[in-house]
Specification:
- This protein has four helices and three strands.
- With 104 residues, the protein is mainly alpha-helical.
- The protein has one domain: Ribonuclease Inhibitor (Leucine-rich repeat, LRR (right-handed beta-alpha superhelix), Alpha-Beta Horseshoe), CATH 3.80.10.10.
- The chain has a three-stranded parallel β-sheet, with no helix packed on it.
- Helix 1 runs parallel beside helix 2, helix 2 (34-42) runs parallel beside helix 3 and helix 3 (58-70) packs parallel to helix 4 (86-99).
């Protein structure tokens, strides 16, 4: 996991109140696509995660898919203003179809 998202995850470990996190215009450590999936897997309190205006590549979407497979609390995922081409849409739609609790 990237250092930035690891620090964020550890800081939120005892979180009992924060349900919405907006990381628009730059997630910590964008060069480590697996970090976002690991962050989603381990955070069980967030219901809303905003990730708009990030330069997500195909690997980021694969990582999101893996994280969403395990996380059951996230309800809203904001991905606007991320260049989402057909292949990325296919990956995201698979994740949404399997989770049944997520709105994008």
């Amino acid at each position: 996991m990237s250092k930035g998202l690891y620090t964020l995850r550890e800081g939120l470990r005892g979180n009992n109140t924060l349900s919405k996190l907006l990381l628009s215009q730059g997630i910590p450590e964008p060069d480590n696509p697996a970090a976002i999936g690991e962050f989603i897997k381990t955070n069980k309190r967030l219901t809303t995660l905003g990730l708009k205006v990030n330069k997500f590549e195909i690997e980021h979407f694969r990582s999101l898919k893996e994280g969403l497979r395990i996380n059951t609390t996230l309800r809203n995922l904001g991905l606007s203003k991320n260049r989402i081409e057909v292949e990325k849409v296919q990956i995201l739609s698979e994740a949404i179809r399997k989770t049944r609790h997520l709105k994008c």
